[in-house]
Amino acid sequence: MNSLRGSVTFSNLTGPSTDVFNVGDTWQLTIHDGPPNSPVNLLLDNSAYPPPFKVVGTTDANGDLKLTGTITHAQAGSEVYQPFYMQFANTYPGYQDPTAPAGYRNVLVGLVDYTVR
């Protein structure tokens, strides 16, 4: 998203690491200066076709969004992989993304990958 002057950051709000979380830690994904009023989608299964997405939030009029979550006991001992996508105008002639509206394509804007202890 840097080519559009926006940025995406991922942080651990309660612990020292964004690679390893403990139960009870709180994470935050921040999108700043992205496309305004645009949905942010989480890819649910990267082995399915067409890939299933779930809308997890929408940027505001300034293109900003903050998503937060807390690590639960059910996640302990696992690796969490969360790819976040947004839809951008399709600049590839002849290509149509099967899960995006005509003229748009899904673009990876943030990949979150961490281990839970």
Helix content: under 10%
User: Kindly, what is the distance between the CA atoms of the first and last residues, rounded to a whole number of angstroms?
Assistant: 31 Å
Strand order of the largest sheet: 2-8-7-4-5
Strand content: over 45%
Give the total of domains: 1
Spans where pLDDT lies below 50 across 5 or more residues: none
Q: What is the count of β-strands?
A: 8
Number of alpha- plus pi-helical segments:
0
CATH topology: Immunoglobulin-like
Broad structural category? mainly beta
Give the averaged pLDDT, no decimals.
93
Q: What is the string of helix and strand elements?
A: EEEEEEEE
| CA radius of gyration | 15 Å
CATH class: Mainly Beta
Shape category: globular
CATH architecture: Sandwich
What characterizes the major β-sheet? 5 strands, mixed
Summarize the entry for a quick read.
The chain has 117 residues and is mainly β. It contains no helices and 8 strands.
Kindly describe this structure.
- With 117 residues, the chain is mainly beta.
- It has a single domain (2-116), classed as Immunoglobulin-like.
- The protein is built from no helices and eight strands.
- The strands form two sheets. A five-stranded mixed β-sheet has the order 2-8-7-4-5, with no helix packed on it.
- It is globular and about 45 Å long.
- The model has no long low-confidence stretch (mean pLDDT 93).
